[in-house]
Design brief:
Layout lengths: L2 H12 L6 E7 L11 E7 L3 H13 L4 E4 L5 E3 L4 E7 L6 E4 L2 E5 L4 H10 L2 E2 L11 H6 L3 E2 L2 E2 L4 E8 L5 E5 L17 E9 L1 E2 L2 H18 L6 E4 L9 H7 L6 E2 L2 E3 L6 E4 L5 H19 L8 E3 L1
Parallel strand pairs: 2-5, 3-5, 4-19
Antiparallel strand pairs: 1-2, 6-7, 7-13, 8-14, 9-10, 11-12, 11-13, 15-18, 16-17, 17-18
Helix pairs in contact: 1-2
The structure holds flavin-adenine dinucleotide.
Amino acid sequence: MTNGIKELKLILDSASAHKIKYSENEPLSVHSSFKIGGNADLFAIPNNTDELKFLIRCAAETDVPVFILGHGSNILFDDGGYKGLIISTEGMNSVKVEGNIMTAECGALLTRCAVLAKDASLSGMECLYGIPGSVGGAVFMNAGAYGGEMKDIVRSSTYLDLDTLEICTIEADEHDFAYRHSVFTEKNAVILSTVMELVPSDISLITERMNDYKKRRIEKQPLDYPSAGSTFKRYPGKYTAQMIDEAGLKGYTIGGAQVSEKHAGFVINKGNATSKDVLELIDTIKKKIKCLHGIDIETEVIYVK
Ligand SMILES: Cc1cc2nc3c(=O)[nH]c(=O)nc-3n(C[C@H](O)[C@H](O)[C@H](O)COP(=O)(O)OP(=O)(O)OC[C@H]3O[C@@H](n4cnc5c(N)ncnc54)[C@H](O)[C@@H]3O)c2cc1C
């Protein structure tokens, strides 16, 4: 344990104003849909912005690196774990619906939001139903499926600037949304909450669409195995999964990591996969695609070390 971590622990233990839930040597495999990863030195779950700010300030004072974790569904944690503080947003998860406007805190799960929207007869989130991430994680990378993306419904986001500790709000057009990209992928910030504008619609039609998307996910995706969803980003004009399939890589295995036989776009954890197995498999796939098509495919999954 570094001196910084020891100091940070002391501060957190003695802080009377903020009794923040945290743990030491937290196994990160539990917090990742890939079920891979060593331990984090410290793992904290703030319940509100004040607690989050306090953690950020204390980590900065003690020189402890920080990583912001949503629901861990797009992350590959290293086998060696994380030397620093992981801040999980799961405790900041309130959702409010007023008229056709939904305001969700960063840690609220997308699927829960989609169900709440449906219950309020509001359309716009059906395509996001089944994406196993949080609102913060979804805004961060403009999550989307079946022709819809976060950019279609986001009206504004409020975030904590981690350099200045100021709270700022940006409007829809300032998000710089693009395919799996938002302004936050280049900002040192924590998205605190997001306002989404939905459209009143018939609840039975919304339900029908949600059930259809769920059925398609079950049919096409290897949901029986841990993964982080699509391993690679789409390459302009090409279907990455199809290229991997045509390269004969379906079922290709390194250690416990395998190119899913059901969907070549997913690397799955067949059991006891390590981050090393996954990284080697990703590298093999990239090299093969480069060799066959002369293009560099980009990883969508975020590797955290
Ligand atoms: C089975 C399966 C199916 C999937 N299907 C889809 C799909 O159809 N479409 C799709 O787009 N994705 C899909 N994904 C990937 C994943 O669910 C999305 O990328 C999701 O948006 C990630 O959200 P998260 O909360 O899990 O983020 P995490 O994985 O925890 O984090 C991802 C990134 O977001 C950052 N982040 C998270 N919260 C915040 C915040 N509040 N402020 C600032 N940064 C933050 C993290 O630091 C990290 O860099 C799938 C994943 C799985 C496992």
